[in-house]
Amino acid sequence: xxxxxxxxxxxxxxAGPVDFTARQNxxxxxxxxxxxxxxxxxxxxxxPKFPGYFLKAGxxxxxxxxxxxxxxxxxxxxxxxEIALVIxxxxxxxxxxxxWSKVSGIxxxxxxxxxxxxxxxxxxxxxxKSGDGYTPLGPNVIPAADLDPTKLRVRTWVNGELxxxxxxxxxxxxxxxxxxxxxxxxxxxxxxxxxxxxxxxSSVAQPGDVVEVEVDAPDAPGxxxxxxxxxxxxxxxxxxxxxxxxxxVDDTQREEAWGxxxxxxxxxQPAAASGETAGGGEGAGVGNLHYVPSTPEADRGLLTEExxxxxxxxxxxxxxxxxxxxxxxxxxxxxxxxxxPGRRILGYAKTLRYVPNREDLFKAFGGGFNAQKRAMDxxxxxxxxxxxxxxxxxxxxxxxxxxxxxxxxxxxxxVTDGGVxxxxxxxxxxxxxxxxxxxxxxxxxRHIPWEVGGTIACGGTTIQPGDIVxxxxxxxxxxxxxxxxxxxxxxxxxxxxxxWVYEQVEAGHPVDGLFPPNAEWKAKYEQYRxxxxxxxxx
Length: 538
What we know:
Number of helices: 14
Keywords: Metal-binding
Shape: elongated
Radius of gyration: 28 Å
Protein name: Fumarylacetoacetase-like C-terminal domain-containing protein
Distance between the termini: 83 Å
Organism: Citricoccus zhacaiensis
Structural class: alpha+beta
InterPro entries: Fumarylacetoacetase-like_C, Fumarylacetoacetase_C_sf, RraA/RraA-like, RraA/RraA-like_sf
CATH architecture of the largest domain: Alpha-Beta Complex
């Protein structure tokens, strides 16, 4: 071990502030990971099977309180709050079980990147990620010896507003695996730093912004913290020179830098299935990734409490009849039955598509944080996850663990025209599930999880993200959002009339001319409705 490396190790093991820009503390190498947090993977729509890395220059390291400059003529300088691992001893070819023992401490990092220059390096990220000040570290190092690596937290604030907040509990690639993987081919030296990926919420910073990152262990004794790593964003007056790659920006880069099309101020883009496996950096094609373009977000304000109340008083059969009056006959998801009879469902469609299993494709796209897991891990409250399984009953499309994840995330229900495995355990989760039956086999027997957020076919009808899904014991119907209010208004009114007709039949009147009502009976009904003190009451 060199003298500098030894100094880096001893400094990292001591709690307290560390100046990583000082020569004796500067890492020999900084290795950064592309994707690791499920929240970020769901946001990107890419599912890495193995870790992917890039290197950052030692001269990119900065201290807390320093400024980062956005070059003149560029627009997409983006922050990424991360947990940095400081290697405590030189190691080679360690196992995943040994990996964490080689870490002497953790600190906060901000993995800044200039998306305007992503095109320049085709995945190496040299110009994009290694500018001066693009890797601030600190201010304090927390000794790793007494920490649980699965119970750490990283948070980021922009001008005092919390924008990133996640924990290491569900990382796709645990820290020990990263160290083992890297040490297969390269010697990791004391003082080296590994950046372990960023959660969802990374976005673009503007000149004048103050970005702060903090890493802590809230469940550990004393709740140790790195303190806030502060970066001031400034505008440079110096543009990129003409003798190198200049900035290039398109809407794809804007969407990925800002975190979504909406945040970038772009119009929604319809979904289309695609497979992308070429290299190009995080968000630009890491090997073994499956990319699906983003889809428009549902109008989350459509289902007001008043409208929900009316929908829940209206039978699916009546809603289906009203759709038929508008020329929409094929709006029901056929063949599915509820796990919990007597319970209704209502929510926005979140779509997931399975394609028939082909062994080579399943090997590439079926494992890891695949489309099925991304769907369940990105559920929003009031979502109904609708799965296209081609009516295939010969395997399961949902089990208890993912049913629980969907419930915890706030899902209203899951609807699949395929099977459910672990059916008793799924029922115990309590989430309403409509399915085509039960089957003990795992998903991979017949399916590959393929696409989240596209237009799908389930139970013989077409469902788009954001469609309104309503279910009762009769079945499940899909209502186009644009028609929802008028369909429910007429269906609810029809329910009032049907209830009145029921009362007349119960009183002994024959159904001829009453059901449906002729002109005479319609007049009587209108008189009855006009006499009601509140037309909102039955």
